[in-house]
Amino acid sequence: MDEECCDSGCKPCVLDPEDGDIPDLLNYISGEFLPARCEEWLNDLSPATGMRIARVPKSNVDDVNSAVAAARKALPEWSSLSHAQRADWLDKIANALEERCEEVAQLESLDTGKPISLARNVDAARSVTNFRFFAEEVRNFTAETFDMENATNHVVYKPVGVAGLITPWNLPLYLLSWKVAPALAMGNTVVAKPSEMTPMTASLLAEIIDDVGLPSGVFNLVHGHGEETGAALTSHSGVDLISFTGGTATGAKVASSAASSFKKLSLELGGKNATIVCADADMEKTVAGVVRAGFLNQGQVCLCGSRILIEESIYDDFVSRFLTAVEAMKIGDPADPETDLGALISADHLDKVSGYISLAEEEGGVILTGGITPEGIPKQFENGNWLSPTVIDGLSPNSRCATEEIFGPVVSIHAFSDEIEAIEIANATQYGLAGSVWTADLDKGKRIAQEIDTGMVWVNTWLHRDLRVPFGGVKHSGVGREGGRWSLSFYSHAVNICIHND
Ligand code: TXE
C-alpha cells in the first residue's frame, strides 16, 4: 500500500495498488456530465477501510458559475409548469430511484461507513419517499384567499429562483432529496453541492435525473470542497435561496456570505439533545429507545440524544441496563446485515470525537464503557475510523463535553432530582434542535416537552418522523423550518394580489 497526501484533508490516505479502476464522479451541469474545468480531483475515502473509493471533481468558482447560469436559463420554462406537471416529474424520479434502491443503499454504506441495514431502511427508503411525498404535497397544495367586504385577496406562491442546496455527509441522499424535491416542486431550479466526503449518491441522483429526461439545467450538481465550491455558491449573485444542513460554525459562515445579497435562507445545524428518563418510564422500551437515540448512525445524526438525564431514584438500575444494551451492539463490517454500528466518517472526525473523550476525562468524567478502538476489528478495517460506543458518567451538566456537539458514538449520563432540574439541564446548552422525554405520565411528558427550548421533542419515542410536520431548530441549531407545507413555503415567495370587487 502506498501513502499519499489527500486533497480532502491533511491525513494520508491509503491507496490500494489495485484501485486503478476506481470511479471518477462528475459534475452534472446543463444536462452534461463534466469534470471540474481545472481538471483537479479530490479523493473520496472509505470510512471503514481508509481506501480511496472514488475521485471527485475539485470544482471552483468557474464550475459554480456554469451551473448557476444553466439553472437560470432553465428557470422560466420550469417555473411555468403547473404543480401537477412538476409533481409528475418528481414521481418519475421517485420511481427510477426506487428501482435502484439497493444500489443507493450499497453506495451510501460504502461512502459513509454506516451499516447496510440502516442505509437500506432509512437512507435509501427515505430518499424515494421524499420525492413521492413532495409530489403529493404540491399536487394537493392550495393557495389561500381572504375575503373582505369589497375585495378578495389571492395569495400566489411564486418560485424563489435558483436554489443552492448544500448537504452534509451523515445522511447524504436522505438530506439532499429532502431539499431537491420541494425546491423543484415549487418551480425553482437547483444547484446542489453535496459533502465532498460522501459524493456517491448525489452522483447517482444526477444519473437518475438524466435518465428520466428532466429538462437540462433544472437540476445541476457541483462537487468540491465547502470552502471553495460551497462558498462560491452561497456568495453567488445568481443564487436566490440557500438551504444548508451542516455544522453550526459553517452555518454562521454560510449565513454571513448569503446575507449581503439577501438570499432566502434555511439553516439546519448541530444539536446537543437531551433524553430525559423519568422514574415512571417503561424500563425495557426506554432502554431500547435511548440506545437508539444515542447511537444511531454512530451518533452522527443532529437529532441524536447525546445527553441522557435520568431521574435519581432509578439511576443505578437504568444505567446498568443501559450499559448492557450498549455493550451488546455489534460493531464492524458495514456490509454485514447484522451490524449495528459502522465507522466514523473520517480520520479527522475520529480525532475530534476522541479529543472530546480525552477532554471528558480532564473534566472529571468516568468512561463506563467504550472510548477505544473496538476489539476484534478484522484486518481489512485496520485503517478505518473506528470507535466503540462510549458512555461517560460523572461530568457536570455544564461541562464542555456535556454541552458541545461531539457528533459521534459518545453519550454522557446525568442524574436529576425533579422536573425543574431536568428542564434546566436540558436547556443548558447553546443548541436547541430536539429532545425526548420518557415517562408513563403523558401529561408530564407534554409539560416537560413544552419547557425544552428546541424545535422538536418526542415523548416515549425518538426520530419518529411524519414528513408533514415542521423540522428545524432554535438557538444555535438553526434558522427556519422545512417539512411539509413549511418546505413549500420556504421554497416559494408568497405574493398577495388584492382585487377590489366593485
Ligand atoms: O460539516 P460542514 P463538517 C456538525 C458536526 C461535525 C461538524 C463539522 O458536529 O463535527 O458539524 O462537520 C459544506 N461555505 N455536523 O465540517 O463543514 C461542506 O462541503 C459553503 C452536523 O463535515 O458543516 C458540506 O457540503 N459550504 C450536521 C456541508 O457544508 C460549506 C451534519 C457541511 O459541512 C462551507 C454534519 C462554506 N464555507 C456535521 N464549508 C447536521 N446538522 O446534521 C463547508 N461547506
CATH architecture of the largest domain: 3-Layer(aba) Sandwich
The total of helices stands at: 15
Give the mean pLDDT. Answer: 96
Shape: globular
CATH topology of the largest domain, anyone? Aldehyde Dehydrogenase, Chain A, domain 1
How much helix, percentage-wise, in residues?
Answer: 25-40%
Assign the structural class, choosing from mainly alpha, mainly beta, alpha/beta, alpha+beta, or little secondary structure: alpha/beta
Total discrete domains? 2
The CATH homologous superfamily of the largest domain is named Aldehyde Dehydrogenase, Chain A, domain 1
User: What kind of sheet is the major sheet?
Assistant: 7 strands, mixed
Cofactors, ions and other ligands in the entry? ligand TXE
- Which runs of at least 5 residues are low in confidence (pLDDT < 50)? 1-15
Bin the strand percentage: 15-25%
Distance between the termini: 82 Å
**Strand arrangement, largest sheet?**
16-17-18-15-14-20-21
What Rg do the Cα atoms give?
23 Å
* CATH level 1 name of the largest domain: Alpha Beta
